[in-house]
Design a protein that fits this description.
Blueprint: E1 12-27, E2 33-48, E3 52-56, H1 63-70, E4 78-83, E5 86-88, H2 92-96, E6 99-102, H3 114-124, H4 129-142, H5 158-170, E7 176-180, H6 188-205, E8 208-213, H7 216-222, E9 225-230, E10 233-238, H8 240-247, H9 252-274
Parallel strand pairs: 3-8, 3-9, 6-7, 7-8
Antiparallel strand pairs: 1-2, 1-4, 4-5, 9-10
Helix pairs in contact: 3-4, 3-5, 8-9
């Protein structure tokens, strides 16, 4: 699929061109045989600075692999990636200072409190502890989290832990956020709190946001443009309205099923073959 060029804005937050990633798996009783699984297949897209771009796809579609590559945690096998003008992997150090990442399973020191986890992160970035704590409390308040700041993470709900993860990603005020299913498993109120916060963040600070999800309503609410990812391929992209019109569908979910139908079937067939 040809990359959709953003002619209305000259500054790009993310540029991905012909990205390809293969995972090699050993199988058999003695692990002597191996197979290749293509997680990403020539994926290309662009995200303007200050835009929220959503990637919709089922589990196993390549969303998390893509986020890990953009976050400098994984190397692509082929293709080109630029983040805020910096080329990966050559300029990964500069990129790491400019991005914040939230994953569906955020890693913490669970025995430590939320405050201790956040101050440790701030220390790694060279932030003043008092500045970091003030910033953390401001973000948590906007996310609707009250109290329990000094409680161990292991005693907090999934929703509270995810709010801490978002706060940690935003401590340094990064101009670009990579969000990998940030509201999965959250209760309805926590999900609304996070969504409202992200809307305000983009509107007030111009933060560039890449959001991966399988929540159609959330993606349509937050994202100016949406890409459909299935079987490691970017099948279509555009506004929610454009995608519905292109497929002749009433809902975004129907549009995804219509446009990704064959690729979803292929992905299932590949998984059966591998097992």
């Amino acid at each position: 699929m040809a990359v959709c060029r953003l002619n209305f804005m000259s500054n790009l937050g993310i540029q991905v061109s012909n990205l390809h990633k293969v995972f090699r798996k050993r199988k058999g009783f003695f692990k002597t045989k191996s197979s290749e699984v293509s997680a990403l297949r020539d994926v290309s897209f662009e995200v303007a600075e200050g835009e929220t771009y959503g990637l919709l796809g089922p589990n196993g579609s390549g969303k998390s692999t893509l986020i890990r590559i953009l976050a400098t945690l994984l190397l692509a096998d082929r293709g080109e990636v630029r983040i805020l003008g910096h080329l990966l992997p050559q300029e990964e150090r500069q990129i790491r200072w400019k991005i914040g990442r939230v994953s569906v399973d955020a890693a913490f020191y669970k025995k430590l409190s939320a405050r201790e986890n956040l101050l440790y992160s701030a220390y790694l970035y060279g932030m003043d502890a008092r500045v970091a704590e003030r910033r953390a409390r401001e973000i948590l308040e906007q996310l609707g989290m009250e109290g329990r700041y000094t409680d161990p993470l292991e005693e907090m709900s999934r929703g509270m832990q995810q709010k801490i993860a978002i706060t940690r990603a935003l401590l340094t005020g990064p101009p670009l956020l990579l969000l990998d299913e940030p509201t999965t498993g959250l209760d309805p109120k926590s999900k609304r709190d996070v969504q409202s916060f992200l809307e305000n963040l983009r509107r007030e600070q111009g933060t560039t946001i890449l959001l991966t999800s399988h929540d159609m309503a959330e993606t349509e609410r937050l994202c100016a443009r949406i890409g459909f990812l299935a079987g490691g391929r970017l099948l279509a992209e555009g506004t929610a309205r454009q995608l519905r019109e292109r497929s002749g569908s009433v809902t975004l979910e129907d549009a995804f099923i219509h446009l990704a139908g064959e690729s979803l079937a292929d992905s299932v067939a590949e998984l059966v073959e591998e097992t």
